[in-house]
Amino acid sequence: MGRIFLGILLGIVLVPIAVLGWLKFGNVPVAAGDPPLPQERLLTGMPLNARIDRELVKTPPIQADEDNLVAGAEIYSDHCALCHGFHGKPSGVGTHMFPDAPPLWDSHHHNASIGVSGRSARRDLLESGQRHSVDGYAGLQGVLTENEMWQVSLLLANADKPLPPAALVMLHGAPPAPATAAPGKKQ
């Protein structure tokens, strides 16, 4: 009986000491090129999905109209395409991140949806970012306004639907057309 209690006591004491030693002496795979820890995606995915579900805004404050979709495409081109790529042009940078930045204009291998289409617009993910996820980035709070984050979110949520021609031009990697001045006015 004493051996059982000694075994339990040693287990309760030695296991945490071993884990702390492993952490303290730098044996944890933290470099972007290191393989993930066993069950890392499972352990981080459960709380991530719970928070996403808890913070979901069901109804965006703006409509997915042509002006907002075109504005979202311009913002995406300026702030997101470097890592997530353009339509038909995957990013060379995003594939070297850990985890990889998903190509938001390609179909997923497990279903026909494009990027995040078919899901609710997720402005909160743009704002605060996500750790340990397929789009683990730092977020755009302080970079984009609330309205701009909603415009990009609506664009991505509607990626599988017909988009305005001006948005498609930008999403194929072309710069936006310059604004034209009214006749007789200088730009």
Describe the structure.
- This protein is mainly α.
- The protein has a domain at 57-171: Orthogonal Bundle (Cytochrome Bc1 Complex, Chain D, domain 2).
- The protein is built from seven helices and no strands.
- α3 packs across α6 (146-157) and α3 (66-79) packs parallel to α7 (165-171).
Amino- and carboxy-terminal Cα gap: 89 Å
Largest sheet: none
β-strand amount:
under 5%
**How much is the radius of gyration in Å?**
23 Å
Q: H/E order of the elements?
A: HHHHHHH
| Total beta strands | 0
Structural class per helix/strand content?
mainly alpha
What is the overall number of helices?
7
Average pLDDT taken over every residue = 76
Could you say what the CATH topology of the domain at 57-171 is called?
Answer: Cytochrome Bc1 Complex, Chain D, domain 2
| Overall shape | elongated
Poorly predicted ranges: 132-136
Judging by the overall fold, what is the CATH architecture of the domain at 57-171? Orthogonal Bundle
Name of the CATH superfamily of the domain at 57-171: Cytochrome c-like domain
The share of residues in helices is 40-55%
CATH C-level label of the domain at 57-171? Mainly Alpha
